[in-house]
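Components:
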Amino acid sequence: MLGLNSKDFRLLLIVLGLTMLAPFILNPFPESSELAQFNAGYPDLMQRFVIFGIFAIGFNILFGLTGYLSFGHAAFLGVGSYAAIWMMKLLTMNVIPAIIMAIVFAGLFALLVGWISLRRSGIYFSILTLAFAQMSYALAYSVLTPITGGETGLQAKTFDPRILDGNAGELGRANLFGLEMSSSYELNLGAWEFTFNTGYYVAAVVLLIGFYMSIRIFRSPFGMMLRAVKSNQQRMNYTGLNTRPYTLAAFVISGMYAGLAGGLMVAMDTQVGPERMFWTASGEVVLMTILGGAGTLIGPVLGAGLIKYMENIISKINESILHQWFAFMPDGLEDLLISLIYPFIGKGWHLTLGLVFMLVVIFLPGGLVQGGQKVAGLFRRKKAEKSATATKPAE
Amino acid sequence: MDAIILQILNGLDKGSAYALIALGLTLIFGTLGVVNFAHGALFMLGAFCAVTLSRLLNTSYTVIDESRTDFLGNPMKVDMPYVMDWFGPEAGAAIIDWSVPLSIVFAIPVMIAIGVIMERGLIKHFYKRPHADQILVTFGLAIVLQEVIKFYFGANPIPTPAPAAFAGSFDFGVLIGFDAGSIIYPYWRLVYFAFAMVVVAAVFAFLQFTTFGMVVRAGMADRETVGLLGINIDKRFTIMFGIAAAVAGVAGVMYTPIISPNYHMGMDFLVLSFVVVVVGGMGSLPGAVAAGFLLGILESLASMGWVIDLIPGINQIIIYLVAIVILLTRPRGLLGRKGVMED
Amino acid sequence: MGILEVKNVGKRFGGLKALDNVNLNVMENTVHAIIGPNGAGKSTLLNCLIGKLIPDTGSVMFDGQSVLGRKPHEINQMGISRVFQTPEIFGDLTVFENVMIPIFAKRDGAFRMHAYEHMMDEKDIVAETEKMLIDVNMIEKRHEHAASLSRGDKRRLEMAMCLSQQPKLLLLDEPTAGMARADTNNTIDLLKEIKASRDITMCIIEHDMHVVFSLAERITVLAQGTPLVEDTPENIKGHPKVREAYLGEAAV
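Structure:
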């Protein structure tokens, strides 16, 4: 179907199901219950799930396929965001031109950075991309203030020209041909409440397209060449292939994904700040991709979802919530348990993230996807053993 | 002219910090072949060794001082640090005052221990893994270390002053014949520079003149052959990791009066230190030191008024710009060896 | 007229004269061996042929065109394939993909942005890959990862990758180095088979006399950076100069 084999098509269907039903899946707990704080089905967070999913899918096309570890991808996200906000200021609050220009500008910037950085490989490549990203951040923060708004960043304003909209002096809202990104439909089913947000569904559709494209790239001759680059550059060269254009194409594509993610961020929340380009943001997408499984199709999406979930949910748990949970225990045990858990929750969620990440790198270099496969393999083997022992007596 | 000299001096202390961190980074890379993203965290841990010691020294009990009264006329409660009790008020006060330099004595064993534990417990298992995995796991470790520090010490910077004797500034300009007041330079920064030079010299002397250092240098050049000679190179490399950690640690200790320690200072310095190592040449010790000072000084020169007027924003990006130019024109950095980290 | 003509090639490394006035003429459809003791300049010569080094003097012409100053992938596109001392294959990819890549490179050139179509939809390339794998007896291993193959199979796969491009010239750099006798003989048989089944020129750089005398039709003996003599194997065996410089120690 759609030019995919059955396995890939099933994967696409899974992602389709997950994204379309996300408002249900992420809100499993009734609104009034104590567990409601684990609900992640509110528009803001759901939007971030898919946007960072797109970012990670793009990063994976570079790192997962070619093995080039970029530490500066946030720069493309930032460039995409700035391009998008300018489109909204100058042309229209419709998100289409904003998103298209975000992709175009991020792609052009990636072409420049990649053209220079890809002259080197290994750690040198990582440092070069990091240097470019930090430069972009520093410049956006200071000298480029007329374009970037400096420290305060850029927001949609009432006096923006917005040529195509015919600005009537009021604050526009990001929309898709009149359909406002921030509009939501709320569905109450008994004790449950589900929110269906326009912006989320727009982003989710974009994610699906992006995911589909990434499957096509993975399975294409081009994708195979990129894996060959990762595997053995020497043989690649002596096979008559020029590795540079392949890696550069992968770099630009992944930069365009990052720009797309940046553009979508602006479409959901019409503002940008330079901190979006800081190197920790680049580090975050690395974490997401590795955590989920670099080089796998679905891994980056899972990784992005997991990290954003942890960021928003774990960081909300505080001491009093822990006390509520463990109230049934004897006091001494309760206090001990809480003091043990406390460093890992609330503001300490980064600690949890760091530890989980380390464990994954140490024990599961293939990320969560590999972990899942291992578990599945274990079950399969047990099944096989069972059937083997079952057939033995027949001998 | 005086302005230029002032900026060079200003660059020296930052350059010293870069050089010391980069020295440890490249030492670890050259000996163990590991790209250690947690090295900045070691610098930060060193700084917090100073904070810890200063807190320990200030541990007090409350006494009631009959000779003084508070505004209500009651006898005043005064915090009395234990050290004052033990060593007498004057010696005690001096010890508290000198807590930062004293922390070096405290930090060296602590940092060596941390380094050895890190190498034996984690890094050792990554020798055979790809460089990308090493970067990733040490990156994770750096996050964990800084979050632990944040948990215990909070997110705000903790001021840790230099001894009173070094608190002021001196007029460097008068010394070399400029007008008084033209080049004012804080004493502590000079101390830091001198300290960095001593540490660098000590590390070089250690590698140059001891048998241990000789084996390590041989190992840096050709690990397999040295291993074949029956020399237990792994054990030496573990110790080397401890030393690199200690160098980063003391660099952090002495830097506390210049920047109040906070939990993310390690990461801030790490990014720049990596640039320094790469500019100097991965695996080259003199390269790391030279590039550290070079970039520190360039950064400060670029922040001079007329330079910024000429090229706006140059002070923000000069280090990265230099790194990019050097990497493209001299792929192995200023003093790098051939064939290091090229795949 | 040979297919590969090396004329007056010289190369210095500092004070060391690695190659001095080397002339070499490899005729089409022959197996030409270059032998010589360690340090004779064999590797340097090879590196000059494949674009890794540029000689200080002289010219290297392949099929009427100069190879000097060209990048490795350009030289391959001219029709030179190379087999390495230790097999260089794409370890993370399957055997099938390993063979597909050179066929793509042959058809599409050094770069083509075919990022949308499925690689298995390229029917002609899939068919060609299957045929090649049948030829080298590896079709049943098509789904295995190349890194998990035995050493002999890796060598076989590398040969298949080179041959799938139908090169005019196959360069072999000590193809049996470090191999056990049985593996060496297998490799010799494989090369004989290849030679018998198609028109191909081979240039072998080799240390092992057994391999050289079983395969080569012409032999160039290199010593201290200059060709000592070039002749047929029979004549080389009896040549006094060669005995003195090289074979004497090997006691043939």
